Amino acid sequence: MPRADKESTLARQWELLRLLPSRPPGKKARDLMEALEAEGYRVTKRTVERDLAELARVFPIYCNEISRPYGWYWEPGAQPEIPGMDLAEALSLGLLEEVLRPLVPESFVRGLEGRFAQARRKLSSLAGNERAEWSERVRYVPPGLTFLPPTVLPSILREVQEALLHSRQLRVSYLSAGETEPKERNLHPLALLQQGVRTYLVACSLRCEKPLLYALHRIASAEALETPARRPEGFTLDDFLERGGGQFGEGRVITLKAGVSESLSRILEETPMSKDQRIAKGKDGLRLSATVFDSWQLRFWILSQGAEIVVNQPAALRREIMATVEEVGAAYRDDRRSCPG
Q1: Are 247 and 295 in contact (CB under 8 A)?
Q2: DSSP β-bridge partners for residue 289
Q3: Domains of the chain, with CATH numbers?
């Protein structure tokens, strides 16, 4: 028998042993066949019966022959702890591996490397099986324009994770947006957030008790200190996010009122901005009303919609958007900023 066939048979029989129950009346050969198929093995009922007969000569498994169809099971008290991984677990680990790496401390990832490798081997052994190829048919596509992930040095990520894991202060050299040189600061790390391709540290500084977001790719150097970190009283990550902390805002809630186009109204009806969102017909078109966080992301979204939305209230937000649009128009009218085609 070729080596590939032997490996396939061994993997199938190993899986079969894991599927056997520990007590009578046991599982029928047809039920075991269907369970194997769910795990990605294409077999016949006759193949399962031959496998069971062969395994029964080596392992303490029995066939309940009291009535047909016969059931197979382990001898009571003899079922061993068989290491392995089912197809669902292998698929899940395969999909999660890349997502977990920037969020989980390196020491934790090292502990999972064996499981990740086992998942890859499991899926590789079932190449050509439609169930095992599910991970090749599923992808997460972020909304909007796709960007390449920024570079985060492994040494910096490791220090950030260690400081967060052990609740210790973190000394960083951080380049804030709009600045040309990084500045030294001590941070009290609270959490990590993955937003699209960017990873952010939620932390308080020595000068500010309010948790803020710090982009990991803007950290030029990092060192986990021995000094315990301070945690704001009552802080929870869920509460931070519910208050708009992940949207680069101050947590202030506003009632957004705006005119919207029919095409944008359809999108908003499918994916509302808030639970209290309302879109109604007015004398001069469709009117949107929604309670949202006053944040940078809100402004970014409004500007990205162009003429599809016109902000009416709050008045301060309307003036801010108008000023930005005027600046954009001036930039496009400035020939010095134009590039030849």
Answers
A1: yes
A2: 257, 278
A3: 3-74 (1.10.10), 87-137 (no CATH), 154-242 (2.30.30), 245-333 (3.30.70)
The upper half-sphere exposure of residue 74, i.e. CA atoms within 13 Å in the direction of its Cβ, equals: 15
Tell me how far the alpha carbon of residue 208 is from its chain's centroid: 30
In this predicted model, what pLDDT tens digit does every residue of 57-84 receive, in sequence order?
878 888 887 767 778 888 876 666 555 5
Q: How far apart are the first and last CA of the chain?
A: 66
Sign of the four-CA dihedral 256, 261, 262, 268: negative
Interatomic CA distance for residues 285 and 244, integer angstroms: 30
- Name, in order, each residue with C-beta under 8 angstroms of 223's C-beta and a sequence gap of 6 or more: 159, 170, 171, 172
Please state whether the peptide bond connecting residue 25 to the residue before it is cis, i.e. omega within 30 degrees of 0: yes
In tens, the pLDDT along 155-212 reads 998 899 899 989 999 999 999 887 889 999 999 999 998 887 788 999 998 777 788 8
At residue 70, φ and ψ (nearest 5 deg) are: -70, 150
- Cα-to-chain-centroid distance, residue 332: 38
pTM passes above 0.85: no
Q: Is 60 exceeded by the pLDDT of residue 340?
A: no
Helix (H, G, I), strand (E, B) or coil at 152: coil
Residue pair 192/165 in contact (Cβ under 8 Å)? The answer is: no
How many whole angstroms separate alpha carbon 185 and alpha carbon 222? 10
Say what the pLDDT of residue 196 is.
76
| Residues 289/278, Cβ–Cβ less than 8 Å | yes
Q: What angle do CA 113, 118, 119 make, to 5 degrees?
A: 100
Residues 271-295: what's their mean pLDDT? 92
For residues 173 and 180, give the distance between their C-alpha atoms in angstroms, rounded to a whole number. Answer: 12
Reply yes or no: is the peptide bond before residue 69 cis, omega within 30 of 0: yes
Q: Looking at residue 1, what is its pLDDT?
A: 42
Q: Which segment of 39-53, 141-155, 181-195, 254-268 scores lowest on mean pLDDT?
A: 141-155
| DSSP code of residue 147 | -
